[in-house]
Structure formats: structure tokens, C-alpha cells
Amino acid sequence: MTDHLTLALVGAKDVAKDLGKKGTTSDLTLFNAVHDDRAVTIVEPTQFPERFPPLLYALAMADRAVFAIPALNREVAETAATLEMFNLPVDVRLGAAVGVDELRRAFKGSPLETAPTEPLDLVQLRRELDGWTAPAVEGPVRVPIDHAFPVKGVGAVALGVVRRGTLKAHERLRLYPTERTVEVRSIQVHDVDVPEATSGQRVGVALKGVEADEIARGHALAPEGSLSTSTELRGDGFRRSRYYRGVLDQGAQLQLLVGLQLVPARLAESGPTTVRVVSDRPVAFTPGERMVLSDLSPPSGPRIVGGATIVA
Asked: What would the pLDDT profile of 49-58 be if each residue is shown by its tens digit?
């Protein structure tokens, strides 16, 4: 298989099941559409809006997003505000109850105002999926882990998408942000054993040197020294969500998302375009990647706070 894509399908919850076969289920539900040389994984934030983190995880896992809008309601508004904080291509698909003019008025001044917008048509959407692929990213391999579980006779198996470089069987990698080193025993791509997997491919990885219950969502496989770790992160180009109703004073308690790592953090400093946060535990990162801040208990309105580019 040569063409791969991880797609976040947000908004309506009755669309993803018609695009792929149901796979891994947790607070997220993954649907797989595999045929010929195409493999698309569709991520649905199943437990959103009751819980906010699934929406963050779904968008953080994705190469692009489809925002299916059955009606303009509070859930859609919070999803729209959150999408603004991720650097993802977004395609909007409208249900019969939502008109284009109504949408433009609702999202006026946001990137979604000018996003590609079409009526929700499953046949057309399936055709478009075949033309979308993940970007190839070169460099030292990096595999953020989204699920892990034990398999009898195999040991710990981790699931994730190769976000950078090439993952090879039998290589030894660090399990960031921990200090542990693990060995890649074997690799599967959509249930097929392979000697290696490249950027964009979704993998199941059998690991030696760690137990499944020692692996958490957000851990990442990468060569020693290829990622930075810190409890203090600085961001540039900070953009506060215009819908956030909380107060961003020094010491504010927030949630920090980097990759698939979601950790409690304290706001140490903020300016018009800069932000500095101190997390409760070390976070692995590469300067230049995105960090997103949320507030799980705001006084009112959306739980998204803002986003920035990590500089240190």
C-alpha cells in the first residue's frame, strides 16, 4: 500500500460509519477504509461533547479534517472554535438544514468562512477520500501512540501513525517522554506484517522491553536524542480563541496538548503573541510544532483557549 491518510471526521456522528469498517473503539472510534493501494483511517471523537479531550485527540491524530455540520448548535460552535487552533486542511460538509450563507455568517472572520464547502454527499466524499494523502515527512522516525494493549504470546502492542521518517523492525527506540528504551519486535500495517513503515502509515507495533500498562496515549517512539523534553514550553504566534471566556492570568490552570500528550499545565506568562506554560510532567516535542491550550472547566462557552508554535 502506498497511499495513506488519517482523517478526523468531526461534527456529525453518523457519517464515519458509512465510510469505513469499525475498528479500535475507546473515547475515539476508528474506522478503516482499505482497498487496493489506499488506506484511510477515519477518527471520530465519540465521547465529545460530553468530554473535550477526544476532540483534541482526533484533530491531533489527523492529516486533515472533514467538518460535517448537521445544524448550527453549541457542539458545532465549540468544534469550529477548536479547529481554528490546529494547522489542518478542513473541508466543510453541510447537512440539509444548513445553508452556505448561514454558515458564512456564523463563521465570519474565521478560517472556516472560506473553507471548501459542499453539501454532505457520501458518494462524493468517498471519491474525495481517494484523492487525499498524508504528507511525506522526512527525518528521524516519530510514532505518537494513541492506543496500547497486551496480546497473548506477543506482549505489548502499540497503535499509532508514523508521523516522520521510517519505522523499521528490530530497531531500538526511546519511548518518549520516558527514559525507557524499547525494541520494535514486529510491525503490522492494517493487519499485514511488514519489515518497515513510512510516514503517514498507521501501524501496530509489538514492543519488547515494556508492558502494555506502562504505555500511555501520547508516548512516542523515536530515536534517542531526536526529541526534546521539558516541563517548560514557550510558544510564539500565540492566538487566543475569541470565544474563550476564562481569564488568562498568571497561574491559570490549563491543559496542554503537544502531539497526543495532554497534560495539566500552569500559565506562567502570556503576551499578545507569546505564551509560556509549565506542565505537571515532562513533555516531548520538536521546536516548531503546535501546542494547544484548553480549559476543561471554563465559566461558560467553548473549552478551547488558544494555540501557539513551540519555540523552546
From this structure: 999 999 999 9
